[in-house]
Amino acid sequence: MMPERLFVCTPSKLSSYADCPRRYRHTYLDRPAPQKGPAWAHNSLGASVHTALRNWWDLPVERRDSAALPRLLRATWVREGYRDDEQERAVYERALGWLEAYTADLDPELELLGVERTVAAKTAVLALSGRADRIDARGGEAVIVDYKTGRTGLDADDARGSLALALYAFAAERVFRRPCRKVELHHLPTGTVAAHEHTPESIARHVSRAEDTARDIVAAEKALADGTPPDEAFPTRPGSLCSWCDFRRVCPAGAQAPIKETWAAVETTPTGPVPA
Q1: Is 165 exposed, middle or buried (0-12, 13-18, 19+ CB in 10 A)?
Q2: What is the pLDDT of residues 199-250, one digit of tens each?
Q3: Is there a contact between 77 and 108 (Cβ–Cβ < 8 Å)?
Q4: What does the alpha-carbon distance between residue 68 and residue 164 come to, in Å, rounded to a whole number?
Q5: pTM here?
Q6: For strand 180-187 and strand 112-122, is the pairing parallel, antiparallel, or unpaired?
Q7: How far apart are CA 199 and CA 215, in angstroms?
Q8: What separation in angstroms does the CA of 155 have from each of 69, 74, 232?
Q9: 267 vs 193: CA distance, rounded Å
Q10: For the stretch 71-87, what's the b/e string if a residue is b when 16 or more beta carbons lie within 10 angstroms of its beta carbon?
């Protein structure tokens, strides 16, 4: 009897299904995929800041200072989704301030195992891979660091409950052959760090949760292949994220959600749920 094929996935793929099976179907299964809505400014901002930080670490140690940041951010700046040039300039200056404050407290000679490093591991169910923003080497252990530029109020519970961080830790421990238990969310807008120290048992629970999600996805895909209507096999899960969904225009439930402007989440005082 042939063994079952491993489910190839990333943390974001698993989270997409957990958030909304219909969104998962549109993203990963439908071909051609439904047309997405316009680009979101908060995604542009996050990508710009992440890439600037990656390139900052790529500089020679002696050049890792605040003077390099304006050039790096300009070179990586993504312009899509903003209301107008004035808002874009204001957000750029805000992002530059975040980067200057954040890197001022960084040791440019910090020992790193990887920057935007892909780590991978297998279980009996999963062929898992994911790209961590940063993996530090601290005292013989690996530490997962994830940058956040979105919503405020992140705390240790967010770090503890993050499936992505736990799966990165699970994979990093196998790739680098050293313990990896600590995970951190570095929130650049506030300069705060939300951290959690996992145990082998808590990591195992997250891996089991990921495997359960993978089994649900495989079952839904089989049901779809056997003739179950797509909206039954992959039902909509209405919620606050519907307003931010790329596919809200092709989803009856999403169409009922309040409309969000593409630049709403980068306003200084946004209202309503804002994507992380």
Answers
A1: buried
A2: 999 999 999 999 999 999 999 999 999 999 999 999 999 999 999 999 999 9
A3: no
A4: 30
A5: 0.93
A6: unpaired
A7: 25
A8: 27, 31, 36
A9: 22
A10: ebbeebbbeebbeeeee
